[in-house]
Design a protein that fits this description.
By secondary structure, the protein is α/β, with parallel strands linked by helices. Helices cover about 45% and strands about 10% of the residues. The chain has 13 helices and five strands. It folds into three domains: about 60 residues, no CATH class; about 45 residues; about 190 residues, Ribonuclease H-like superfamily/Ribonuclease H (Nucleotidyltransferase, domain 5, 2-Layer Sandwich).
Amino acid sequence: MNTGRRTDIPNAEMIRVHLADERDAEMRLRLVLLNLVVELPASVTLADICRGMDVPESTAYVWLRAWRERGYAGLKHPTETPGPGPGRPPTLDAAQLAELKQLLGERDGWQAAEVRNLIRARWDVELSISQVARILRTKLKMHFGKPYPHDVRRPADAEEQLEQRLIEVYKDLMDQGLDAQDIAIGFLDESSPQLTANTVRLWHFGDGHITKNTAKLKANTIGFYAVVGESVHGFLDASTQEAIAAFLPRIRAANPDYGVVVVILDNFSSHHSAAVQAAADDNDILLVPLPPYAPDLNPVEFIWKSIKRVISVNFIATVDDLRNQITAEWNELARHCSFAKGWIDRFVPSIIDYKNLCE
């Protein structure tokens, strides 16, 4: 056996997909070995990898052959032989793929194992998880990721409700003599990034760990993310109506050249208090509430998620360090309109002609 030889691994991207979700210790060992073969430079031989993982090289070749021939199912049972008969494993023809696409479109969110079971029950075709994933990705153009949760109480017509509110607001402002360039618009929200968050998956050897300060430090943050105008953020002792009201003049100060600032915000009780409304009136700010239970219509949520991901992999010693990290990330992220690109495409054409707004 030539221990210096490295073998090609088909469907290498699926190794990472399975490894991210695998809980069985023995299967993780096999997947980790295959992933090292893929990721490490060719100068690192299979023999080197096997010595580092304390796996016999002959066993590694069995695993490699099983993956090459039958994907995940083969790796799970590497000593089993494929069924009789020559040729490629069975797959789906064009008509079956079209029917599968229609069936999968009847609901949101599928696991690969569910699709495999559906294919088996519908057409008596046995596929591995990696084969199913390849069909979903390359043939049906589906996406693989964590779905954004929608509250069951969210109105079915939430987008239409918000669209109608914006149409009415802009019509009223135009009737008052304002032009498009006189109107700033953006999103207000609060978040409390903290040190204990762990939201990023990282590649690593062994068990994997990261040194963190696990003290219960957090920074109550408020931000105005502008689609038209200037974004601004700050820190609150608490999300009280008085604190939120005190932040509104900062939005106006950041946007002094606009006749009015339209602020879209959720239905948190403090947002609609008398104190906040009075501060909005004093600063020529027009508050537009989102439909209930529809945070997905507020793009600033995606900025908070990005900030939390960065914090989760950094060592932060103090609250001041945490605030400085949040400020640095906010100043960088809020400069980009990409977080609001989908919102702009969906709602802006209904209210005003902001051509080239996010190009």
